[in-house]
Amino acid sequence: MLQIVSLPQDIIETPVAVEEEQSSFHGYAVEAIYSIPSRSTPKTTLCSCVSYAKWYLDREGETWGNAGAIKPVYDEPKIDRIILLHEGKYGHVGIVTDYTEDTVTFTEANYVRCTETARTIEKTDYRIKGYR
Question: Is the Cα torsion angle 35, 41, 43, 45 positive or negative in sign?
Answer without folding.
Answer: negative
